[in-house]
Amino acid sequence: MSKVVHWLQHHETRLFHFVNQRIQHNYLNHFFTRITHLGGATATIMISLCLAVFGHDSLRVAGLQALLALTISHIPVAIMKKRYPRLRPYLVHPQTITYKNPLTDHSFPSGHTTAIFSLMVPIVFAFPLSGLILIPLAFIVGTSRIYLGLHYPSDCIVGCLLGTTASLATVAFWG
What we know:
Layout: H1 2-22, H2 26-35, H3 41-54, H4 58-83, H5 89-92, H6 111-126, H7 131-147, H8 153-174
Helix pairs in contact: 2-7, 3-4, 3-6, 4-6, 4-8, 6-7, 6-8, 7-8
């Protein structure tokens, strides 16, 4: 089993270094430092609240579902960050490229990725064509976390799974 874990860690680290160091570009620096905030607590809560308060019909329901999914999904995030205290990549790999105000809490799982998927899924269920924009956008937010040196790929994959699962459960429960 340790050979498998070692192999996975090795390849994850290689993928992290590729995204964080090899594809660096001035345009991507500006793009990812801005778009990453769409997965932050302020943006996801405000967007969900605005949809819930100002939206009509299925948009209002999607906002309420997103608020519930955000709440539900961040319970396991908080538990996992305490139970599996994984250091952020920039603290482990000195060559990591980071940007201003790097986070100091634990890396696993990605809260930003969890949040953006918790928000995105109910909207896509309400308006399927929005998925053409929102699904890639959610993956870009997750990728931004790796690019900015804040998370390993598995942190973002688990965040994606947590946010998506919480949202699917919320939408199913609501319906």
